[in-house]
Amino acid sequence: MKPTIALVGRPNVGKSTLFNRLTKSRDALVHDIPGLTRDRHYGHGLVGEKPYLVVDTGGFEPVVDEGIMFEMARQTLQAVDEADCIVFIVDGRNGITPQDKIIANRLRQSTCPVWVAVNKVEGMNASVVCADFFELGLGHPVAISASHGEGVRLLFNEILEDF
Ligand code: GDP
Ligand code: MG
């Protein structure tokens, strides 16, 4: 079965950058799924010989400030609902924010497997940065750089092992 992997996280952590990296260099965008909504993008990804569907959430930007917490929670739940696995992206240059905590709370209540990807860590000490994000209570964080490509293949290899 081809798993669906959803990218979730607050605005600006690098979801779309990662989505673009995973789906680039091939005709990867999906336009023909029934019920496709405008606040999510779907694309075909491939690790080795294993195909998967990747979902970029976060089409809620730009949005008024007081709505964003609600929107993030809603979109996170929606992603969990339709995905086989979640990649929860956080910003390794910022540390944990209140918005990260809201999303983490939602994700801890779900039975969907969750991977915490600490993004933007190029040129940083990955293990030191990742240690900060254990506090989210979602297991061992994995360091990546979506824009430089570091750690991305490793992470998706590991994720796809379970499918
Ligand atoms: P989204 O709102 O979560 O979809 O985040 P975007 O993919 O739009 O990225 C937000 C900003 O972070 C952009 O300016 C990206 O260029 C930058 N960004 C994304 N990934 C990385 C990364 O791995 N390293 C660094 N330094 N910047 C990144
Ligand atoms: Mg985006």
TrEMBL record:
GTP 1 binds at residues 9-16, 56-60, 119-122. Residues 3-163 form the EngA-type G domain. It comes from the Bacteria. Associates with the 50S ribosomal subunit. Belongs to the TRAFAC class TrmE-Era-EngA-EngB-Septin-like GTPase superfamily. EngA (Der) GTPase family. GTPase that plays an essential role in the late steps of ribosome biogenesis. This is GTPase Der. It comes from Iodobacter fluviatilis. The gene is der.
